Amino acid sequence: MGSFFNPEKGIWAWLSTMVDICGLSIVWIFLCMPVVTIGPATAALYYTVVKRVRGREGGAFGDYFRSFRDNFKTGLWTGLIAIPAALLLFFGHSVVRWYGTRVGGAAYILYVAYYFALVLPAGVLCWLFPLLGRFDYRVKDLFRTAFQLTVAHLPSTVVVVLLTAQTAVFCIERWWPVLFMPSVAMLLVSLFFERIFQKYSPELAPAEEQPDQ
User: In 3D, which of 200, 183, 213, 199 has the Cα closest to residue 54?
Assistant: First the structure.
């Protein structure tokens, strides 16, 4: 019975993780409402999910707000560039899709080509804020590194882009998943990105995975 009442094991640990997942998602939603704060809010969410949810440690909300504060300036400027770019890509996709599905022929081929061409810019957008959450960058260097990782790890990038897009559609079509899906999506994204980050920065690996010195 002792293990049942242990807050670090069993159902209590599971409940604590669920509270963190839902709580962080709700906090992220509120901090994204001004729109211009989407960058630091998303960087902080990625960082906290990796450090506290995957690591199963306490202090998730304190870490979230610290990361939000530390990344605020760079995340703000990055978001001011990334958000209009994302809207432009979405608008272009909508126009080309409408034209391609109604006209057909060459127009549809153009739509398919545009769809595949979206992978690179969408991939850069997906890499930006996880990078910011895990490393210190200036805005220019952040975009350059995101582009390099997008190209160097294209298969992982494609999976993450599709995952992010489907998460957004899921939350838009049904309002209630937004209460937990932001954190769940970051958790799934981290399964791909953390492996790559650790390749370039081995110190990010958990202590039991780090090579002996």
Answer: 183
Quick one: which of 16, 29, 102, 101 has its CA closest to 60?
16
Which of left, alpha, beta for 104 (phi over 0: left; psi -120 to 50: alpha)?
left
Return the pLDDT at 210.
Answer: 52
Q: What digits encode the pLDDT tens for the residues 121-168?
A: 999 999 999 999 999 999 999 999 999 999 999 999 999 999 998 998
Residues 6+ apart with CB under 8 A from 156: 192, 193, 196
pTM of the full structure: 0.86
